[in-house]
Amino acid sequence: MIIKTVLILLLTVLALTGLPEALASPAYLGVFNTKYNTSGTRLDTCDVCHTTGANLNPCP
Question: How many CB atoms lie within 10 A of CB 24?
């Protein structure tokens, strides 16, 4: 009962304060390129996922 109450309270606080939409790192581009074999292609850029917004994470 207490665990359920704490969990509900925690989820409520997270919902009210907001969660980040996404966390990204330039290192993820390397993982993307490895998984999809896109190194050296037009897809070898952060713009594949980060198409809009003023505060994009820096790209390598």
Answer: 16
